[in-house]
Amino acid sequence: MADDAAPADDTAPAGDAAPGDEVDELKHQVADLQAQLAEAGTDSTFRRRSRQVLTGVLVVLTCISLLASVVGYWVRSSVYDTDNWIELVGDLPQNTEVATALSVRLTTELMSALDVQTRIRDVLPERAGILAAPITEGLEGIVQDASYRVITSDQFHELWIGVNRFTHEQLVRLLEGEPGRVSVVDGVVYLNLMPLMGKVLGLVAGVAPDLIGNGQPVPDIGPDTPPDQARAELESYLGRDLPDDFGVIEVFQSDRLAAAQSFFTMFARLVNLLMALTVVLAGVTIFLARSRRLALLELALGAVVTIAAARAIVRNLVEQLIDQIRDPTTSGAIRATIEEVAGTLRGLLTWIVVLGIIVVVLAFLTGPSRPAVWLRHQVALGFGAARSTSERLAGQAAAEHSWFADNITGVRVGVLAVGVLALLILPTTWFWFLVIVAIVGLVELGLAGVARDSDAEPPEVTPPTAPPAATSAA
User: Fold this and answer.
1) What is the distance between the alpha carbons of residues 10 and 6, in angstroms, rounded to a whole number?
2) Are the C-beta atoms of residues 218 and 230 closer than 8 Å to each other?
3) Do the beta carbons of residue 274 and residue 72 sit within 8 Å?
4) 3-state DSSP call for residue 217?
5) Residue 336 falls inside a structural domain
6) Residue 210 domain-assigned (yes or no)
């Protein structure tokens, strides 16, 4: 029949996908996204852990470099610098043990150089020669007492400083390759101390004039006097021959001078390099860290631990070195010298530890932890209460005394002057310094509030007086 309907087409269009296929495709896409996220998370975790490990390594390297820089700086400033060296050893003769050891050494050298026992035996009768030894011992005690008085005198203190300054400057100049007052004999570098030996003999002769020189003045030996000429003049003054090494100090073999000069220059440059490297390592550590504050905290904490450990090691080394001294004559002097020299290093390390602790505390208090937040809040409340109290008291004083309010600037200057005067008068300790600064700061805050309030108050305006009303004529 013509009007029969065409059969229905049950097949989907070619361009459309079945619902099941779409679900499978979505599942594949989700799986791909999950795999990508997992891979990205793995890469992110790896980078984060690598960054943490690198930061930790940099912290360790920075602490090691800091320790080497501090020790190198101390050696260079204490040993290489003449002024610092004088400050370090200048007061050693004032130490009783050092003065005793020096007097014993000076007496021994003097008695040996003068051959006192032989001289006494020559002037005694033949049968009385047996008395030469006890007489010499008694005279040695007198000379030692005189030497001790000389060493503890102000003259010797000045001489001691001059000797150390002279010797140190010459050694530094020699190591720097500059011409100095040194001599080279048979391949050995000597330091000429003849002028200083002449001054020492002059001081001893002033105390015991009958012992040396027969009352004659000590030869005037200047810095430009050749060592051989100076030795000949002293031999004539003392009346006997002196050893060839009298008045000179062997520094080292001349063939090692170039190596010593190279080491001196290299060490000075190495200290500068270590100090610069420490700064660079610290900067790179803070830059690469995920948290700048935590990086600073780790650096400061690592520095505190490293320097504190180094300080303990220095203390133990000093004690071991002192325990190895067996000579009872010089043990006290050597102990005092070692403790004096090592004390400056321990003091420097202590200051660095204190500074590191301050940085650790500040880095912790600025963090987001509950104790830090609570403490900051309490400090803010306390500061606000103190400021309010100070402003209230200052305001009451200004309200009761008009002069106080009119001269608020002068009062603030006076408070500062009193604070400065207190710093000059009171003991110079950190406790009093912090107390005075805190009190002056609180008072100044209160006065600042009074000054601000007085500036904000508008001037009182007196209303104009109304003119008298005109009266009309009756």
Assistant:
1) 12
2) no
3) yes
4) coil
5) yes
6) no
DSSP conformational letter for 189: E
138 CB contacts (<8 Å, ≥6 apart)? none
In this structure, are 363 and 387 located in the same domain?
A: no
| Tally of structural domains, the chain | 2
Same-domain pairing of 376 and 291: no
Rg (CA), the chain: 42
pLDDT in tens, 252-266: 665 666 677 677 778
**Angle formed by the axes of helices 132-151 and 116-123, nearest 10°:** 130
Kindly state whether residue 241 falls inside one of the protein's structural domains.
Answer: no
Whether 445 and 433 map to the same domain: the answer is yes
Which of 330, 352, 367 is the C-terminal boundary of a domain? 367
Cα dihedral angle (301, 304, 310, 313), rounded to 10 degrees? -100
State the sign of the Cα–Cα–Cα–Cα dihedral 444, 448, 449, 454. Answer: positive
Which residues neighbour 85 within 8 Å (Cβ) at sequence distance 6 or greater?
Answer: 78, 79, 164, 168
Which domain covers residue 408, as residue numbers? 370-455
| Confidence category of residue 5, pLDDT binned at 50, 70, 90 | very low
Mean pLDDT over 217-239 rounds to: 78
Residues 283, 359 within the same domain: yes
Q: Would 419 be classed as within a structural domain?
A: yes
- The answer to whether the CB of 247 falls within 8 A of the CB of 194 is yes
User: 286 with 225: CB under 8 angstroms?
Assistant: no
The per-residue DSSP string of 92-147 comes to: GGGSHHHHHHHHHHHHHHHHHHHTHHHHHHHHS-GGGGGGHHHHHHHHHHHHHHHH
Is 242 buried (19+), middle (13-18) or exposed (0-12) by CB count in 10 A?
A: middle
> Are the CB atoms for 77 and 160 separated by under 8 Å?
no
351-391 pLDDT, tens digit per residue, is: 888 888 888 888 888 878 787 788 777 777 777 777 677 66
Residue 187 tokens, joined: 């391949």
Distance of alpha carbon 175 from alpha carbon 169, whole angstroms? 10
